[in-house]
Specification:
5-stranded antiparallel sheet; binds magnesium ion; D-amino Acid Aminotransferase, Chain A, domain 1; globular; 6-stranded antiparallel sheet; 9 helices; DUF6815 domain-containing protein; 3 domains; Rossmann fold; 15 strands; DUF6815; alpha+beta; about 30% helix; binds adenosine-5'-diphosphate
Length: about 350
C-alpha cells in the first residue's frame, strides 16, 4: 500500500524535540492507527532528485508542512510538488493552490463578493501604485499589505494628516501622511511620495506586490480567524488588538489578546462564508480546498445596519493545530477522505 508522505524541512523555530513540527507526528500516528502507512520526508534542495524519485514511487499523497517563505529552494520545492501532482500523487495542497488561496492578491479576485470591498487593488509595478494609490487615499483611509510574511511586517495603515483641497480627487505626493505598521503599531510620518518610494521594496522581487484596501475601523473589535478542515470550520480564534490609540494589529507580538471560540458563536459569519465558498474556489483558480487552512475576517457595517464580514487574508501553506493536538485523528480522517474521493474519480 502506498504511503502518505509529509514534507518538512530540518531546523526552524517551529520544531519540537523530535525535530518535527509538533502536530506532524500525531497525524502520522493517527493515519498508521487507521491502517494507512505514513512517514515524514525532510525536503533538502541538494537531494531533490532522489526525494522526488522516492516520493513518486512510494506515495499516494503528500501533505506539505513547510512555510515556503522561510525555506531554501522555494521555487525548486514548488516545481517538485507540481511534478508530483502531474505524476498523479494527490497534493495536499497543490502548489498553485498554496499561492491561489494564500497570496494577498487573492483578495482582489473576490471584489465581486460581499467578502471584499470593491475598492481593493493590487499593485505589481510602481507605476500602477503611483497611478491608483493617491486616488484611493483621497476617498478613504487605506491599509497597504505586502505579500510576504505573516507578522504584520510591511502592513501599513495610511491616513491623511490634513484634509485635501476641496474638489481634489487625488492626494498630492507632498501630502503629509501618518503611517502605522501592524508589526508593532509604531507610527511614522512621511510625505506621501516618499513613503511610496520606501514601499518599492515590497513590490520588487519574486512574488512582490502590494494590496491596497480600505482601513476597517471595526478592527478594534477584533479579527476573527476561522480554522478550516477543507469546508468545515473547526475552531475560531478571536484576536483583539491592544487598547492603545493607534493599535490596529491582531498579531500576538503587538499585544493583541487571543480567545478561542467554538464555531457556533460565529454562526452568521460561517454560514455567510460557506455559502460563498464554491464561488471563492472558482475565482481563485478552481483548486481543491486546502486540507488545513485559515481565513481571517474583520467586521464592517452592512448598508442595512447588520454586520458584514470582510476577508483580510487566507493562509494555507503551513497551517497547524499545535494548540489542539486532539484534532489529529480528525485530520487523518480528512486525509483519508481526500484519497478515497480522488481514487473514486479515477476509477
Ligand atoms: N483592512 C484592514 N483594516 C483594519 N485592519 C487591518 C486591515 N487589514 C489588516 N489589518 C490589521 O493588520 C494585521 C496584519 O494584516 P494581515 O493582512 O493579517 O497581514 P499578515 O500577513 O502580516 O498577518 C491584521 O491582523 C489586522 O489586525
Ligand atoms: Mg494576518
Amino acid at each position: 500500500m502506498k504511503k502518505v508522505i509529509f514534507f518538512e524541512v530540518q531546523g526552524g523555530s517551529d520544531k519540537g524535540q523530535d525535530g518535527h513540527r509538533k502536530d506532524t507526528m500525531p497525524m502520522v500516528e493517527a493515519l498508521q492507527q487507521k491502517g494507512y502507512p505514513a512517514e515524514v520526508v525532510f525536503f533538502d534542495v541538494t537531494q531533490m532528485d532522489a526525494i522526488y524519485d522516492y516520493v513518486k514511487h512510494n506515495a499516494v499523497a503528500y501533505v506539505s508542512r513547510i512555510n515556503p517563505g522561510n525555506m531554501v529552494g522555494e521555487a525548486q520545492y514548488f516545481g517538485m510538488l507540481r511534478a508530483l501532482c502531474e505524476d498523479g500523487i494527490i497534493g495536499l495542497p497543490h502548489p498553485d493552490a498554496m499561492t491561489g488561496y494564500g497570496a494577498k492578491d487573492a483578495l482582489v479576485k473576490l471584489t465581486d463578493t460581499s467578502l471584499v470591498p470593491s475598492d481593493t487593488y493590487a499593485y505589481y509595478t510602481m507605476s500602477e501604485f503611483f497611478y491608483q494609490f493617491p486616488k484611493a487615499l483621497a476617498l478613504n483611509e487605506r491599509v497597504l499589505k505586502q505579500n510576504r510574511g505573516s507578522t504584520g511586517e510591511g502592513i501599513w495603515r495610511v491616513q491623511l494628516m490634513e484634509p485635501l483641497p476641496v474638489g481634489a480627487t487625488e492626494a498630492s505626493l507632498t501630502t503629509k501622511v501618518k503611517c502605522t505598521e501592524a508589526k508593532d503599531n509604531h507610527v511614522e510620518y512621511w510625505k506621501l511620495g516618499e513613503f511610496m518610494l520606501f514601499c518599492e521594496q515590497y513590490i520588487i522581487g519574486d512574488g512582490g506586490m502590494l494590496v491596497d484596501m480600505p482601513f476597517l475601523p471595526r478592527i478594534k473589535e477584533g479579527e476573527i480567524r476561522l480554522l478550516l478542515l477543507r469546508d468545515t470550520p473547526i475552531n475560531v480564534v478571536h484576536k483583539k488588538p491592544a487598547a492603545a490609540a493607534d493599535a490596529f494589529s491582531a498579531t500576538l507580538f503587538s499585544g493583541a489578546q487571543y480567545r478561542y471560540d467554538p464555531p457556533i458563536l460565529w454562526e452568521g459569519l460561517i454560514t455567510d462564508f460557506l455559502a460563498q465558498l464554491p464561488h471563492v474556489k472558482d475565482k481563485l483558480g478552481g483548486f481543491d480546498l486546502p486540507l488545513l487552512w485559515t481565513a481571517d475576517f474583520i467586521l464592517r457595517d452592512a448598508p442595512d445596519g447588520s454586520d458584514d464580514y470582510v476577508l483580510g487574508e487566507m493562509n494555507c501553506s503551513c497551517v497547524g493545530f499545535t494548540s489542539e493536538l486532539s484534532l489529529a485523528p480528525r485530520v487523518a480522517d480528512e486525509i483519508i477522505a481526500c484519497i478515497t474521493e480522488k481514487q473514486q474519480i479515477k476509477a
